[in-house]
Amino acid sequence: MSSPNSNRPLLETAFVACRTPPRGLRSALLIRVPAALLASVCGCALPGVAAERLVNVTASKETTPVESTRDAADDPALWIHPTDVTQSTVIGTDKKAALEVYRITDGVRIHRLPVPTGNVDLRYNFPLSGRYSTGQSHTTVALVCAFKKRGTAEEAPGTLGVWKVNPYSNPAGALENVEVSTGVQAGPGGTSMYVSPVTNKFYVFQNGGGKLVQSELIESTDEPGRVTARMVRTIPFATGTTESVGADDGLGYVYASDEERHMVHRFDAEPGGSTKGVTVGTDVLQSDTEGITIYYAGKNDGYLIISNQGSNNYAVFRRQPPAGGGPNEFLGKFAVVDGEVDGTSSTDGIDVSNFPVGRAGDFPQGLFLVQDGRNPGATQNFKLVPWERIAKPLELKIDTMWDPRRVGIRAAAVP
User: Fold this and answer.
1) pLDDT tens, 187-211?
2) 3-class DSSP state for residue 208?
3) Which CATH superfamily hosts domain 55-406?
């Protein structure tokens, strides 16, 4: 396979800074020209040129629209069934009313919890004793965390909500509450879980109100079989408009958005790590940076994907930062346009998986999950895009070997 940076298509554009302004202008002039034209004139790449690559892709499936009207659907997360990938599900939030579960095979809603929730995430192999409502015992579970709102108002504050996924329910994937009062207060914002590759401890990050809060998730000693949280650190931001967050379980980074300045910051994800961030995407992100997710192509390789809500596309960066710790390398952008189902726009949350799910022919090379802010003729919903439709035109890797269900495993995991 050729390098992700080679053979750029004709959709590229470039920005050229004219450092010596023409007579009569008091400041430098910024001219936008096609990259192909620039190359033909200059015959080489010039300093100050930032190439941008955009491709169009289509979704193959969509979920049942949420029941709430206007701005309601918010963030999706993929749950992969422990033994039968055809029973995998999409967990999606209706921030005005509910936490919902959809079948991966056709997008139909199969479970609904009447709890207003914002951003959602999950991790497998969380150590927890107890039984599912269907009677089976467990020592580890797939754990779901979401921002649980107090009320339906857009800016309503709330707390951290915690559920376990029941693989034995009919249909599989029912969510069962396991939280003790976590004590973690939260404003409206992003939620991402993180499993430390150093200690195997489980954490949750919440980004909102101008700060990134990290808490450790543990089984309650007072109420075994239930989950509580302990705040371990807070990272303040210079601005108050922050929301999306995503953590890399392999490389030990967490990415948090700074919406006012149209950028994302990379921090060490370990609780004792540096709170000095590295800025990512300064030249290619537009308002708002709403969704962040990680595509794993093995332990160290893969991609960081960020939603450009205001420009209706998604920016892809190299997952591994460069030597010396600078910003992640930008690789290109893609937009989801009309196809088998309608395209996406004004996106909030996103998720991605390299792992095959669904029936044969559904998503054999993984998928990209994306919230659709404008769903013609219906309320908002979530779209499902086969990963190869993104990877091939952008010359990204397709790697189905990394299994997210093994992250955090200590011993033989019980579903």
Assistant:
1) 557 899 999 999 999 999 998 778 8
2) strand
3) TolB, C-terminal domain (2.120.10.30)
